Amino acid sequence: MWYRFVFLLLMCACSNDSRSIKVKGSDTEVNLAVTLAEHFYKVNPAFSVAISGGGSGLGIASLLNGQADIANSSRRLNAEEDSLFKVKKIKLHTIVFAEDATAFIVHKDFPLDTIDISSLAKVLSGQYRTWKAVTGWNMLVNIYGRQSNSGTHAFVQERLGIRFSRDAKEMNGNAQIMESIKADRSGIGYVGAGYIAHEAKERAVKVLYIRDPKKATAVSPLDEKAIMEKRYAFQRPLYQFIPSTSWEKVKTFIDFERSEEGKSIIKASGYYITR
Q: Which end of the chain is more exposed for a tag (fewer CB within 10 A), N or C?
C-alpha cells in the first residue's frame, strides 16, 4: 500500500526510538491517520510515524504484544480484550478523536436509493437470499464485508442484532469492498463514510439512505447536519488506545490531532467531530 511506503520513509528519517511512533489497527481510520501524520511530520520533523491497517482487532492485539504505541479502533474493547489488558497490567489511555458513519453501498445502477433497517438486517443475515423482497429483482444477494477482527464488522452486527450470512465474502479492507461493488450489480457492502469522501467526490457506487422507523426521514451517512444531530443509525466514535508506557512518546502527536489544524484535517477528510 502507498501509505506504508510513505511511512517507511518517515521511519528512516529518525532513529531515536523515543520519537518513533507505531500506529496499527482500524482500516476505517487508516487514511485519516496517514493524512494527520503527514501534516504532523511537517511541523515535527524529529518524529517518525509508521502506520498500518489490518483491522481494529489487530491493532488491539499489537498493543497486548508490545508491537504498537497506538491502536486505532472503530469499536470499544470487548470483555476478553479488557480482561487481557488487566492480566498483563497494561494501563490504557482512551482517546475519541473523531466520529465516522458506516455507509452501505451498492452498484451505481441499483434500483433503490433507500433501504430500511429491517430489510438491511434480513439481507445481511442471509434471511433474504435474493433481492426480490426489496427491489423486485430475482437476483442473488452478494454480500461484501470485512473479517471478524474488523471493528466495523462487529459494529454492524451489533447495531442490527444479527450474525452475517455464512455466504458473506470477507474482504481485506474498504478499497477491496469498493472495487467489488463497482463490478457487481447485485452486491452490497459497507465502508466508512469518511473513506468514501476521501477517495472521490464523484463516486462509482451508490451510497444508500437508511430509513430508521424511529426517525421521520431516511438519512445518508454523508449528511453532515444529520450526523451532528445524531440522526444516522450507524454512526460511531473512533478510538485510539494508548498504553501508559507510550503516552509521553505519543502526546505530541495526540496534541496535534486535537489542535485546530488537526480538527480541520479530520473534517476535510470526511469525518466528524461531534463533541
A: C
Instruction: Please name the residue that has the C-alpha cell 528519517.
Output: 13
Look at residue 57 and give its three-state secondary structure. Answer: helix
Alpha-carbon Rg for the chain, nearest whole angstrom, is 19
175-220 confidence digits (pLDDT tens): 899 999 999 999 999 998 888 876 654 568 999 999 998 887 999 9
CA distances from 146 to 64, 110, 233 (A): 22, 22, 19
> 153 to each of 5, 27, 74, 133, 235, how far by Cα in Å?
27, 11, 10, 24, 13
Cell of 1: 500500500
Q: Is 265 helix (H, G, I), strand (E, B) or coil?
A: helix
Q: Which residues contact 149 (CB under 8 A, 6 or more apart)?
A: 54, 55, 56, 57, 58
pLDDT exceeds 70 at position 247: yes
In contact, 125 and 164? CB cutoff 8 Å: yes
Name the residue with cell 502526546.
251
Q: Are strands 235-243 and 92-107 parallel, antiparallel or unpaired?
A: antiparallel
> How confident is the model over 58-83, as pLDDT tens digits?
999 999 999 999 999 999 999 999 99
